[in-house]
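Dear support,

Our group has been running a series of protein-ligand predictions, and this particular one with zinc ion is the one our PI (initials K.S.) wants archived with full inputs and outputs. We had some confusion internally about which version of the output was final, so please treat the block below as the authoritative record. The input we submitted was:
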Amino acid sequence: MNTVAKPQSVTPELRRWIIEQAEAGCRPQDVIQAMITSGWQEDVAMRAMESTLREHLATLPADESDLPPPVPVPEPPLAGSPSELLADGHLVKVLTTLKHPRVVVFGGLLTDEECNGLMALAEARLSRSETVDNATGGSEVNPSRTSDGMFFERGEHALIARIERRIGALLGWPVENGEGLQILRYRPGAEYKPHHDYFDPVHAGSATILARGGQRVGTLVMYLNTPEGGGATTFPDVGLEVAPVRGNAVFFSYTRAHPSTKTLHGGAPVLAGEKWVATKWLREREFV
Ligand code: PD2
Ligand code: ZN
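Confirmed final output from the archive:
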């Protein structure tokens, strides 16, 4: 009897498992055999293993001389490991920090009123999110990003300007270097597959984007609500998941446009309810 093969997708958990097997010294053929035994089709298993190990290799510490030089990045003043920071008169909790990749999770960055205000201002302007078209530097709808979104202009509204001042103070980075705030709404099932936020200079379209203020060097994702299920921000290179909690935020920075920064990250599928976030991307220079 013929069986119809189910499509088999390579999950972050499978990728991690493959890397763990390789690090433990397992032979590739044994790893493939173990996958086949647990129901994977051989060709899918081979492709999963090859792509996972190729991408993993790029995240390993390379010879510094082979990498583009590091650039200064935004960084909160965390010397002395404070549990709170005062940013433009607003107390923000420091919940978790990681050195590599540089990740900081903040609590209470936004008040409930500010979260509600951002969602209300954005709602009527939401449309299907797009991603950068690498060839042209324009944008296009992409199945790897199934949220709805919109961009505010920098300082477009008193509420936006207040939040941007707070972010500038918190991260020690000029407000002018920030892109306009982006609002995203994920419905159940919506996700943002793992990606890097920097622009890969090898793509033809990057030149146009980089002309507006240089590279992105940091990202702040602020959670405007707490979804009923799912929607974590994930960092697959290091197995880190940040739960979306209203008012909290996750910040990460990258000193070069390279996977060795381990800043691969994604928005896991929302399982129940909606997930709303505001993203602030920070550039090297004034964003125009
Ligand atoms: O919504 C998120 O958790 C998320 C995940 C990955 C947002 C972004 N990237 C982004 O806005 O760049
Ligand atoms: Zn991102």
